[in-house]
Specification:
Blueprint (H helix, E strand, L loop, with lengths): L4 E6 L9 E6 L1 E2 L5 E2 L2 E4 L12 H7 L1 E2 L6 E2 L2 H11 L2 H12 L6 H8 L8 H12 L6
Antiparallel strand pairs: 1-2, 2-5, 3-4, 6-7
Helix pairs in contact: 2-3, 2-4, 3-5
Amino acid sequence: MGCKQTELREAEDADDPLGGLLAVWISNNGSGEATDLVEVVNFLNPFSCAPTPAAQAIARAVALEGSHLRCVSLADLVALKLYAGSLSDLADIVQVLALNPDADLETVRTIAGRFDRSGCLDELFAKARDLRGAPRPR
């Protein structure tokens, strides 16, 4: 296994919804982009008093087998990505939904919907279906 690389991105101002994050990855692809990237988010942003999906995601997180690490549910991951709101976060939602065709979209909508500030969740659902080649519901 190669050397692990890290990058700390601290919150610069009150507009950073994440409060900064720590990115960890093992290698870069041919374009220099990190592969197998894991982002550790700091939702304890001292600048923000707005509610975030973090507390509920942490409360519902389940332990990974054989580890002390916990993982958030797919619905909570979508909520966290919607809250962050960048184009890459929205693309991540499409990818994760496309890779999980059996996901309970109503649960995703219930948990993540309140953080859908731009009203794009249904469009992201549709793009995920298109990406995996599934027919659209009628």
